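Inputs:
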Amino acid sequence: MNGKPVAVITGASRGIGRAITVSLASSGFDIAAIARSLDSDGMEHLGQDVEKLNVSFFPIGLDISCTACHKEVVSNILERYGRIDFLVNNAGVAPLQRNDLLNLTEDSYDRVMNINLKGPVFFAQKIAREMIWLKDQIENYNPAIVFLSSVSAAMSSTTRAEYCISKAGLSMASMVFADRLSENGIIVYEVRPGVIQTDMTARVKDKFDKLIAEGFVPQKRWGMPEDVGRAVASLARGDWKFSTGAVFEISGGLSIRSL
Ligand SMILES: NC(=O)c1ccc[n+]([C@@H]2O[C@H](COP(=O)([O-])OP(=O)(O)OC[C@H]3O[C@@H](n4cnc5c(N)ncnc54)[C@H](OP(=O)(O)O)[C@@H]3O)[C@@H](O)[C@H]2O)c1
């Protein structure tokens, strides 16, 4: 059995997931890092950065939408570490092409929903079952689960409806997991980022540079992956133990409505 707490992060190779992984490693968690492929430079460099922090790094290749693959991955993590304390469901994609809602295709809808919603729901279900079992095996065990949604859970974008719908669904997934797992002592949070500078937003960078300069984000800057990484680490440290089901928005005030 691992002495240190163990964090599992999906979509760890780049962007927000990478920043969360480094923050959790800095907080003393051993790491199981998941990305679609292990071939990327991203995972190799992440491994080096994590191991410099004197914690262990276990890289895993998994397409999160492959629900039939989840069981083996969870078994491998438990075989390696013997425990899972903190799960971050971060992996997610934008549509390959922005299309008006009236031209939304079933292929794009299925791709986005399978990766952003179905995959995380069933992955969290498998890990939650293990966490319930581990509760009786480990002393001072305080498991928690985070779902990375988006301000798009509650803000409409008519040219990427499938993304908004998937994130609204993930927001409810967080609530029902929080509700169901409260009796098992497992805390569940939704983390809702705003506009964060990553590969996902690179293709709309010019548009958002302009919008941000015009005051679209009240705090007048891009969010950085580390803004989200620090916030998730504070959840993992147990600073928010009486807040299951809460939504933590990290958006520089994007949801403020002002007159
Ligand atoms: N950036 C933003 O402004 C923003 C705002 C709100 C919410 N979010 C959410 O935050 C999360 C991270 O976004 P990001 O901006 O950091 O994205 P990103 O830079 O595009 O990185 C996406 C990560 O997800 C992984 N991934 C993609 N598809 C996957 C799959 N099918 N199975 C497993 N892993 C997969 C990628 O792995 P590979 O390297 O192997 O491709 C990569 O590690 C997403 O859920 C996103 O919706 C982002």
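The mean pLDDT is 97. Flag for discussion at group meeting.
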